From TrEMBL:
Swiss-Prot/TrEMBL keywords: Coiled coil
GO biological process: protein transport
Alphabetized InterPro entries for the sequence: Ist1 (IPR005061), IST1-like (IPR042277)
Region (Disordered): 217-321
Coiled-coil portions: 15-53
Extent of Basic and acidic residues compositional bias: 311-321
Organism name: Rhizophagus irregularis (strain DAOM 197198w) (Glomus intraradices)
Name the record gives this protein: Ist1p
Pfam families in the cross-refs: Ist1
């Protein structure tokens, strides 16, 4: 459709005509709705509930459309009151921006020819790019209520039942929605809200019993400490050969009777020892003791000292533990 050149006088005339046409159309829609409501009341009185529900959906849409017409009429009145801003300012003033964008958006969706003429004049004034932004509703420049009222959608079942109850009450018809219908309507209307809430809420999992976990950990630690720190007596007896180190015969030089009975450290041979002396290996003093508590052979005169006897008694005491 070719764009008309902007003419302020023509825009003012078309705004006045649009306001009058909007009022007339609202009156016409209201009168038609009253007649349709009476017909729906007759359907309810004759127990034709399903037909009444279908008919009332059309009344709901008409009520939405009438509300949209009222908003458009207010915007036309606003542009008439602030027409000087349109004439004097080249760009759209922020105080009338929503009204201009909403009229450009809603004119093709209305049944009023005069609004189409107003739309053409506004596009000629503010340009094609401004009109495209209004049609696409960029930056939410269009009134949200107009978008919702002019949107074609199936009415909610809960709203349908409420409309029927009000119509029955107005025309003194003994009708009320069944409890099953009300429950199903409530569930259908709230299902989407509940799903959104459940998806946004965080999910919680059951926490474990911390006392039980601590007791299990303490038991496990106790068993591991017992197994590592206190070996049994049988293992000590079986590994007695490996426990006693191989040391030369004779007590250590720095050994005293108050010592704890630890095995003496090996004595290194002197530095000037010959190769023949190095080949001679003395047997360990306390290795390979039998279970009858036999004492090692007294092959060397050094083992008869009191200090050696004390060491032997201590090693035997360790074996018996």
């Amino acid at each position: 459709m070719p764009l008309n050149t902007y003419n302020p006088n023509r825009l003012k005339v078309q705004l006045k005509l649009a306001i009058n046409r909007l009022k007339l159309l609202q009156q016409k829609k209201n009168s038609i709705n009253k007649q349709q409501r009476k017909e729906i009341a007759n359907l309810l009185e004759n127990s034709k509930t399903e037909s009444a529900k279908i008919r009332v959906e059309g009344i709901i849409r008409e009520d939405y459309f009438i509300e949209a017409l009222e908003i458009l009429e207010l915007y036309c009145d606003l542009l008439m009151a602030r027409f000087g801003l349109i004439e004097q300012i080249k760009h759209c003033d922020p105080t009338i921006s929503e009204a201009v964008n909403t009229l450009i958006y809603a004119a093709p969706r209305s049944e009023i020819k005069e609004l189409g003429q107003v739309r053409d004049q506004l596009i000629g004034k503010y340009g094609k790019e401004f009109a495209l932004n209004a049609i696409d509703n960029k930056d939410d420049c269009v009134n949200e209520r107009i978008i919702q009222k002019l949107m074609f959608s199936t009415p909610d079942p809960f709203l349908v039942n409420r409309y029927l109850e009000e119509i029955a009450k107005t025309y003194n018809v003994n009708w009320k929605a069944d409890d099953i219908d009300l429950i199903s309507a409530d569930l259908s209307s709230n299902s989407q809200v509940k799903n959104n809430k459940s998806s946004s809420e965080p999910t919680y999992t059951a926490l474990p019993d911390m006392d039980l976990l601590m007791s299990l950990n303490n038991d496990a630690k106790g068993e591991s400490n017992q197994s590592t720190s206190t070996p049994n007596s049988a293992s000590i007896l079986d590994n007695s050969d490996n426990i006693l180190p191989d040391v030369p015969i004779g007590p250590p030089k720095n050994h005293s009777k108050n010592s704890l009975g630890a095995p003496p450290s090996p004595i290194l041979p002197p530095a000037n020892q010959s190769d023949e002396d190095k080949d001679i290996v003395n047997p360990p003093p306390y290795s390979k003791l039998d279970n009858n508590n036999e004492k090692p052979s007294s092959g060397n005169s050094k083992m008869t000292t009191d200090e050696d006897d004390e060491l032997i008694r201590r090693f035997e005491a360790l074996k018996k533990r």
